[in-house]
């Protein structure tokens, strides 16, 4: 994806997310409903998303998504090191914000489930355990990324020798993040299904409600 596509896509997604969260708070106000943890966590995720969007747009503006321009600009060893360091800092910050944003979004969904299915005590216990799991998942991967070079955090964007000496290979952690993120997302989305199918409504209604929740898979 080139820099222009990155700018357009990031801007559109940011606006859509902002309108969605803003509409949610507006609907709460119109209906005179109290704001809950689901609202505040989704608002926090929006703030993180804005920060992530700003980082991505900054990266696009300085040419990190334009490999041709980047190759033309680099003509010395010092420039190579400077470019690699800048890209490493960019990827470091982007990953931290991405993990925090995903964690907050997942937590906001589970908090919303707790608001909707407040009368089902078994789900309360399950959802509380799931919240602890999601919070632990988020903190664990934040720490894994921040301290992948132990306490020598700046070694990540330092010299190649420093990376080799202080930093662990990021491959296993990256694979673990991707796989566990897919699993937690699926678990979050299917959590309300058992409750829906125990509701005393017609099968058609159950299918309809399940379909609405299933839209989250998209």
Automatic annotation (TrEMBL):
Alphabetized UniProt keyword annotations: Membrane, Transmembrane, Transmembrane helix
Signal sequence range: none
Membrane topology summary: Multi-pass membrane protein
Record-level GO cellular component terms: membrane
Primary subcellular site in the record, as a coarse category: membrane
Places the protein is found: Membrane
Domain annotation Rhodopsin: ranges: 24-217
InterPro entries: Rhodopsin_dom_fungi (IPR049326), SAT4-like (IPR052337)
Entry annotated with the keyword ATP-binding: no
Record has Transferase as a keyword: no
TM annotation in the entry: 6-27, 39-65, 89-113, 125-147, 175-197
PANTHER family: INTEGRAL MEMBRANE PROTEIN, PTH11-LIKE INTEGRAL MEMBRANE PROTEIN (AFU_ORTHOLOGUE AFUA_5G11245)
Family to which this protein belongs: Belongs to the SAT4 family.
Protein name in UniProt: Rhodopsin domain-containing protein
Organism per entry: Paraphaeosphaeria minitans
């Amino acid at each position: 994806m080139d820099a222009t596509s990155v700018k357009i896509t990031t801007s559109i997604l940011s606006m859509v997310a902002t309108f969605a969260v803003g509409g949610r708070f507006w609907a709460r106000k119109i209906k005179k409903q109290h704001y809950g943890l689901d609202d505040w966590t989704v608002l926090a995720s929006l703030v993180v998303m804005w920060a992530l969007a700003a980082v991505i747009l900054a990266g696009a503006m300085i040419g990190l998504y334009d490999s041709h321009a980047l190759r033309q600009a680099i003509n010395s060893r010092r420039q190579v090191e400077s470019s690699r360091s800048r890209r490493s800092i960019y990827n470091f910050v982007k990953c931290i914000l991405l993990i925090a944003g995903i964690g907050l979004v997942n937590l906001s969904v589970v908090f919303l489930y707790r608001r909707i299915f407040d009368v089902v005590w078994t789900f309360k216990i399950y959802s509380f355990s799931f919240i602890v799991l999601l919070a632990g998942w988020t903190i664990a991967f934040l720490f894994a990324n921040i301290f992948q070079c132990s306490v020598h955090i700046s070694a990540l964007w330092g010299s190649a020798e420093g990376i080799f000496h202080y930093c662990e290979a990021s491959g296993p952690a990256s694979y673990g993040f991707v796989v566990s993120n897919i699993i937690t997302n699926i678990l979050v989305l299917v959590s309300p299904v058992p409750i829906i199918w125990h509701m005393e409504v017609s099968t058609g209604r159950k299918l309809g409600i399940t379909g609405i929740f299933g839209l989250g898979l998209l």
